Amino acid sequence: MLTPGELASRLNKLVISILIVGHRKCETDWYQKAQPIKHHSVWLIIKGKGTFTINGTHYPAEPGKLFWFAPGMVVERTTDPEHPLEYYFIRFHYTECYEDKEQWVYNNASETRFPLEGMYTVTNTPQLIYLFEQLDVLWKRRGHMTAMRRKILLQELLLTLVTDFRAQKIAGDTTAAIELTQDYMIGHYQEPLTLEGLAQMAGLSVSHYSRLFKKYIGYSPIDYLTHLRVDRAKELLVLSDYRLKSIASSVGYTDEFYFSRIFKKVTGVSPREYAKNHRITSGN
Predict the structure, then answer these.
(1) Which entry of 56, 89, 144, 225 is 20 to 30 Å from 48 by CA?
(2) Predicted confidence band at 280 (pLDDT cuts at 50, 70, 90)?
(3) How far is CA 178 from CA 191, 210, 213, 274, in A?
(4) Does 202 have pLDDT greater than 50?
């Protein structure tokens, strides 16, 4: 898939002409057999459930799904009879037309593929529904000013979609950054890790990193690290006869007394009490 920036660049070079705008509530037995698509179109699912099969691959048709169909695709569409589909659609033509180094470039649809094909998940569904609704209303009217308004709304719809994809990418990148630091803590809990260092690793400010880590993981970064260290200390206390100072050092604490306070705060008992209650000996 193109990056949001690349997608915006491609869309900016296109001139799009709307052929039909429509809104449909499907019957419970609605079904369209597999057949080649003849026109470019985009469908926004707003209610119900169904399955769209594109070139042999099945996709869920449900609210929040946007489908871009292109000529030549073999598409089969069906609805769930208990939850009939409702959708908006736009059928369109396009051509590529843009200025490059003071020269105009023209390519028809057969020479340049439309940059969106297949199924996409969108998060700002209410805004997209609003834009489809407005286009549907304007489609029933005529006039040159109305035609200009339709063009503006279509561009706004495309911009909303690109913005949605960018927001999803940022969220995805942020989640990956959080998971990276989580994995790093698991492998390096015995080292002197700092909140500032972890935030820098994630490429975020300390406050933003802390807030997002708590949102995604359920613990603050330091609490998560503390629990990792205490869990490892529990294993050592149960399975070994190491001295408390040695165990504290092996899980990242240079001060055994500080380690004991942290351990009791998390577990409710001191390390020695925990070892006494849980240690595995050769007799059991």
Answers:
(1) 56
(2) low
(3) 19, 10, 6, 32
(4) yes
> What is the number of domains present in the chain?
2
Tell me, what CATH number does 247's domain have? 1.10.10.60
Helices (H), 76-141: 125-139
pLDDT confidence tier of residue 283, bands split at 50, 70 and 90 = very low
> What is the distance between the alpha carbons of residues 22 and 147, in angstroms, rounded to a whole number?
16
Residue 89 and residue 23 share a domain: yes
Taking the C-alpha atoms of residue 90 and residue 22, their distance in angstroms, rounded to an integer, is: 7
- Cα–Cα distance measured from residue 268 to residue 183, given in angstroms and rounded to the nearest whole number: 27
Q: What is the pTM (predicted TM-score) of this model? A: 0.72
Helix (H, G, I), strand (E, B) or coil at 53: strand
Letter for the amino acid at 149?
Answer: R
Tell me: the pLDDT tens digits for 215-234? 889 999 999 999 999 999 99
**123 vs 130, 199, 215, CA distance in Å?**
14, 27, 18
Please report, in angstroms and rounded to a whole number, the separation of the first and last CA atoms in the chain.
58
Structural domain including 228 reads 223-278
Give the C-alpha separation, 124 to 159, whole Å: 12
Residues in CB range of 46: below 8 A, 6 or more apart: 63, 86, 87, 88, 125, 129
**C-alpha span between 108 and 120 (Å, rounded):** 25
Chain centre to alpha carbon of residue 169? 6
